[in-house]
Design goal:
8 helices, two-stranded antiparallel ribbon, alpha/beta, about 25% strand, single chain, TIM Barrel, about 280 residues, twelve-stranded mixed β-sheet
Amino acid sequence: MGRSLTVSSLCLNRTPTQLADNLNMFLADFHVHSTFSDGRLHLPQVVDLYGRRGFGAIAVTDHLCENASLIGRASVYLGCSLTPATFPLYMEMLRSEAQRAWEQYRMVVLPGFELSKNSVSNRRSAHVLGIGICDFIWADGEISDLTRAIRAQGGIAVAAHPVWTRKFEKQTYFLWDNRLALSDEFDAWEVASGPYIFEEVAKTNLPKLASSDLHAPGQLRSWKTVLDCERHPEAILDAIRNKNVRFQFYEGEGDCHDTRRSTDHSMVSRHFLDPLGDMVRAATA
């Protein structure tokens, strides 16, 4: 028998029929934005973008900016951040869209947000993903306070793009500069964001995750995480915690219902990255 699907910490109202559906290996993207912060797609559009392409799981992680910095307050003013006022609607829509995603696509949608601490200095800036959580957390405070608050809700804490992103944009180096002191505070560190592998992270023994940091449909072409577990919120979070992941480049076209035959599909690169950072070439069927 499968586990109970009453997962209060994830705020997902699942039905017992889902227990019979173990669809094996699937692609997942755990860093996705919507119009609730600075993304271009509304939540239903986000779900359809991934669901129609056969993804097994996504996490919606809109920005939640701190109030202590001028940049954070400006983000709130410009509508690029979740706030205590918008957060209840955000979670309510996530619950509704998670149900629809499962019924229509057999895709798990995990609730979350990106705690964003932005300073004029890149060395003082840091972004922390909280995945699998539903309660509001203020982004102000020490990093360890944020990660522990995330974990206290049963979620996972991920260090978002901790090194140079290979793009001309605001950088967030604080977590990487302090990785020795903070390594135990995180369940994973992003080893890839969008189309770029972070070699600095790949060479370490830190737990890893690869995602798109998607803000617009054109950014779907990126590194993704591959999971081989039950399509259930707790199983997905446990796979990440236990480092049962690998990474694959998604070209953005075609179907990805069965990543076991990924070399037969044009949308999937033949290159994989294992959790230790070694590049291996997929076996030819």
